[in-house]
């Protein structure tokens, strides 16, 4: 093995441990006869010259399986003392499993080797809690002894976790990050040796999702596995990430004890309000006011500091000015608090120094394993009977229900909760994240995915932190639980959030939500309109709607609204008349629910206007009973003067709150129909095939990367978040673009670029008639008047005349000569750079009207087969591709394949800043690219790639 000292034997490492030779950086001096290695003073590595700088993107905060955070970064020479302290805290059993024998101390030369790595062939990560190392992982490349100059492609891997932190999934986390670093450095395989009795470490490798090959000899397992991500390894990673991040949110929402830091005796202070709300909600655990100037607050004994509280504290609500946050943080860290809810303002919301204070707050909290809600948050609530947590500034909560609500706005949170209560919408949990410095909507999506108390998710979003991750999580969650979102700031993000927000165009938001199955609404009122239907009524199986009412005028309004929303009417509206009795009214609704044939409906809209001196309560009661007669179709009511879920329309649960089967009522027919339409679109999305993420045949990413390297565009791993760098963007030449597109199986209809009439004639003869002549220069390309293009030229004479025309128009003697593609509908397929996603794919039909109306469809990369199919069919002009008015239909499968190839190109090459295939001629014979423009440049950061990390 490389660099092995002659007096060293094979040793081991583990989580509790894997053996590897000295090439892993874990070798030790053989102990002298009768004892352990000689104890000597360590080399003063902290004073040594620094080693090579490590890639900064390797440093990350990670959520462990218990929901607490650990910080991961490459090891440095200055970590020598901390590594010695870490080793001393390992038990004899862990040392034995790691080193296959006693190893009580690390000798100086081993210590120097352990902390001095090159971050390429030799890589080591440490997991930190505060300043203490709690886990170490490393790999060292293995050279081929027969080919010492050959590139290193395999490495030995090893790691060890401190005894008191084992069982937190740190071994799996280290393996993920080591494998990612190894792949980045060109390695493709890991090897390890493990004592057969080391079941924990064997399980780490076995459950990582890789295909592990084993060999057994003398009580030692030799393991080898390829480290390229597999479908199973990615699924394992995502599953562990979901479980860990869900647990971290559960730590916030299910505390066994709460401290209110800044609990005031002054009723006008926010600390007093939070404490009062906790007590009023009858939180099931102990509540500890923290106030150095009071013996008690609201009759509850107060403590001068959180460290004075005699029992453990899970959650601390911080309600003191931002200037005092450092002292609070110190005491919370000392106390071992699991999570903070910071309702105080004066951080990033105040700008200037507040931004730095907020970053420091989160950095210190994460370094010690804590999650943070806020700052500037309204707070959190969990309405479960076994918790009854209201750690917020909202005095009154809605009834208990099965809807989870995340609000990024603290100021709006109180109004949201009040509206939910007034409209009868029950909540399971509520989180207002304020500045969203740590815990974000993505974390809540992870929690609600497996939360048995939540069936519907509502989001009020102002900005995105990691949109790519949001899309991945929302798509997964929306398959089983509806997600409804308001995205404010469509035209301008709030200034206070721009520092931490990722800028995102509204077209990108629309594509993200559509692709992920998120029901997008524009207002808070629409949010509740949609949520009420989802919370209490079943999903419709289609878009056919029956209308029953006692007012012809309102029935007509409902019918108009249905047509406006693209819904269908099931038969004619039924008007029972103003004099109908409750029984007659109920019978008409029942017939609509049970109808079949042409009148069969997937959902019902019921309209009722109380006649003069006729109370509507009895009509509402019979409607509720009829709607719950077993038809399993959603019913939306328009009972004038009844908004939300009034008692008469509610099916009460044992605690009196509305339950499944309750009928929501809307103030107008239009609002009822709009809510029903949104729910119907969501139900249709959920029934669609999931789609597969496949790579079309004939794609060669390695060749494409080599081509980009040859073009002089390089990836900088430590690039800035906005993709800015020293290298400028570069538009590829025609030949370069054709070469790069060819790596992804995207041919461009053959062409030549020539000067002069004779050269044009020669090129036409070479390519074969008919041909097209095109002017050179962006000014003449893609004009709808085709002034720079001459088509269907079938002879040398036609070429000469066309050349003369173009030369006269453009003043240039240079043209493109291109073989004519089969005639078809002209389309445009583009990749646009989005700072948050890296790439956004758009598709549209060419033409002035299309451009004027911006009739394009968008999808976020990566693209599934179903995404590609939807993209091609989404533009309003898409019927032109399917045989509109007797025209020949285009080969949609060929267009979908082209979209998948472009999507694969955008996903595989972050340097792809923009791409335009224009025009693409879609015909019965296929999809033919006749023009392409490619721009490369420094890639933007993509935080959703690679191993788990908080981002």
From TrEMBL:
Limits of the ATP-grasp domain: 738-775
All copies of domain N-acetyltransferase, residue ranges: 70-228
Domain of life: Bacteria
Biased amino acid composition, Basic and acidic residues: 1-10
SMART domains attached to this UniProt entry: CoA_binding (SM00881)
Keywords for the protein's UniProt record, in alphabetical order: ATP-binding, Nucleotide-binding
Gene Ontology MF annotations: acyltransferase activity, transferring groups other than amino-acyl groups; ATP binding; metal ion binding
InterPro entries in the record: Acyl_CoA_acyltransferase, ATP-grasp, ATP_grasp_subdomain_1, CoA-bd, GNAT_dom, NAD(P)-bd_dom_sf, Succ_CoA_lig_flav_dom, Succinyl-CoA_synth-like
Region (Disordered): 1-52
Segments of skewed composition (Low complexity): 11-44
SUPFAM superfamilies found in the cross-reference section: Acyl-CoA N-acyltransferases (Nat), Glutathione synthetase ATP-binding domain-like, NAD(P)-binding Rossmann-fold domains, Succinyl-CoA synthetase domains
Protein name (database record): GNAT family N-acetyltransferase
């Amino acid at each position: 093995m490389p660099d092995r000292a002659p007096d060293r034997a094979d040793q081991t490492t583990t989580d509790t441990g894997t053996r590897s030779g000295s090439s892993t950086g874990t070798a030790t001096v053989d102990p002298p006869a009768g004892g352990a290695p000689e104890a000597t003073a360590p080399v003063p590595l902290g004073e040594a010259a620094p080693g090579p700088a490590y890639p900064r993107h390797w440093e990350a905060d990670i959520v462990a399986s218990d929901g607490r955070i650990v910080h991961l970064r490459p090891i440095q020479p200055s970590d020598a003392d901390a590594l010695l302290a870490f080793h001393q805290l390992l038990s004899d059993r862990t040392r034995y499993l790691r080193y296959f024998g006693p190893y009580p101390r690390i000798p100086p030369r081993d210590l120097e080797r352990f902390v001095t790595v090159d971050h390429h062939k030799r890589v080591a990560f440490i997991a930190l809690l505060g300043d203490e190392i709690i886990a170490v992982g490393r790999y060292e490349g293995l050279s081929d002894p027969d080919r010492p100059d050959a590139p290193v492609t395999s490495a030995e891997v090893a790691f060890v976790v401190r005894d008191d932190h084992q069982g937190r999934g740190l071994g799996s986390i280290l393996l993920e990050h080591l494998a990612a670093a190894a792949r980045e450095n060109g390695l493709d395989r890991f090897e390890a040796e493990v004592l057969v009795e080391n079941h924990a470490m064997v399980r780490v490798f076995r459950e990582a999702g890789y295909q592990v090959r084993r060999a057994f000899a003398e009580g030692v397992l030799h393991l080898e596995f390829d480290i390229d991500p597999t479908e199973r390894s990615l699924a394992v990673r995502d599953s562990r990430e979901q479980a860990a991040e869900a647990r971290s949110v559960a730590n916030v929402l299910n505390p066994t004890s709460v401290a209110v830091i800044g609990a005031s005796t002054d009723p006008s202070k926010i600390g007093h309000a939070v404490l009062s709300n906790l007590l009023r909600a009858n939180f099931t655990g102990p509540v500890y006011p923290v106030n150095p100037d009071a013996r008690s607050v609201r009759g509850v004994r107060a403590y001068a500091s959180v460290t004075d509280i005699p029992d453990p504290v899970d959650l601390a609500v911080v309600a003191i000015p931002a200037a005092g946050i450092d002292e609070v943080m110190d005491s919370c860290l000392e106390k071992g608090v699991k999570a903070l809810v910071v309702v105080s303002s004066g951080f990033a919301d105040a700008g200037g120094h507040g931004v730095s204070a907020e970053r420091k707050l989160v950095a210190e909290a994460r370094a010690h394993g804590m999650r943070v809600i806020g700052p500037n948050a309204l707070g959190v609530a969990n309405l479960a009977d076994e918790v009854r947590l209201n750690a917020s500034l909202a005095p009154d909560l809605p009834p208990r229900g099965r809807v989870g609500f995340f609000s990024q706005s603290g100021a709006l949170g109180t109004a949201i909760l009040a509206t939910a209560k007034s409209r009868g919408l029950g909540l399971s949990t509520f989180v207002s994240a304020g500045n969203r410095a740590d815990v974000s909507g993505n974390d809540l999506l992870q929690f609600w995915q497996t939360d048995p108390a939540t069936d519907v998710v509502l989001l009020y979003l102002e900005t995105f932190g990691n949109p790519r991750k949001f899309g991945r999580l929302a798509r997964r969650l929306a398959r089983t639980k509806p997600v409804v979102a308001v995205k404010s700031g469509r035209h301008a993000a709030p200034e206070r959030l721009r520092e931490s927000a990722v800028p995102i165009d509204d077209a990108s938001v629309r594509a993200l939500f559509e692709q992920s199955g998120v029901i997008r609404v524009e207002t808070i009122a629409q949010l509740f309109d949609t949520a009420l239907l989802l919370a209490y009524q079943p999903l419709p199986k289609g878009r056919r709607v029956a209308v029953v009412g006692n007012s012809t005028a309102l029935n007509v309004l409902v019918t108009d609204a249905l047509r406006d929303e693209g819904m269908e009417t099931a038969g004619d509206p039924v008007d029972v008349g103003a004099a109908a009795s409750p029984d007659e009214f109920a019978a008409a609704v029942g017939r609509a629910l049970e109808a079949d044939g042409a009148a069969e409906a997937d959902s019902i809209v019921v309209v009722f206007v109380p006649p003069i001196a006729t109370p509507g309560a009895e009509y509402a009661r019979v409607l509720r009973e009829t709607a719950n007669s077993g038809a399993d179709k959603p019913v939306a009511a328009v009972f004038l003067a009844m908004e939300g879920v009034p008692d008469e329309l509610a099916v009460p649960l044992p605690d009196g709150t509305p339950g499944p089967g309750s009928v929501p009522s809307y103030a107008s027919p239009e609002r009822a129909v709009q809510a029903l339409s949104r729910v119907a679109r969501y139900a249709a999305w959920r029934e669609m095939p999931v789609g597969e993420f496949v790579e079309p045949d004939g794609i060669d990413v390695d060749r494409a990367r080599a081509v980009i390297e040859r073009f002089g565009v390089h990836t900088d791993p430590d690039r800035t978040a906005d993709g800015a760098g020293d290298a400028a963007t570069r538009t590829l030449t025609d030949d370069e673009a054709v070469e790069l597109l060819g790596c992804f199986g995207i041919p461009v209809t053959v062409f030549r670029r020539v000067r002069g009439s004779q050269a044009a004639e020669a090129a036409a003869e070479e390519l074969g008639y008919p041909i097209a002549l095109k002017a050179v220069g962006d000014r003449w390309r893609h004009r709808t008047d085709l002034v720079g293009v001459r088509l269907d030229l079938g002879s040398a004479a036609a070429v000469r005349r066309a050349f003369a025309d173009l030369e006269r128009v453009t003043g240039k003697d240079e043209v493109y000569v291109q073989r004519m593609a089969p005639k078809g509908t002209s389309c445009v397929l583009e990749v646009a750079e989005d700072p948050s996603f890296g790439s956004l794919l758009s598709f549209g039909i060419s033409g002035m009207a299309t451009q004027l109306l911006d009739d394009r469809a968008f999808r976020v990369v990566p693209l599934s087969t179903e995404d590609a199919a939807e993209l091609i069919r989404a533009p309003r002009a898409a019927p032109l591709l399917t045989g509109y008015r007797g025209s020949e239909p285009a080969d949609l499968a060929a267009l979908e394949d082209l979209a998948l190839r472009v999507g694969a190109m955008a996903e595989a090459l972050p340097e792809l800043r923009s791409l335009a295939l224009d025009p693409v001629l879609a015909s019965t014979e296929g999809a033919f690219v006749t023009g392409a423009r490619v721009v490369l440049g420094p890639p933007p950061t993509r935080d959703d790639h690679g191993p788990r990390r908080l981002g």
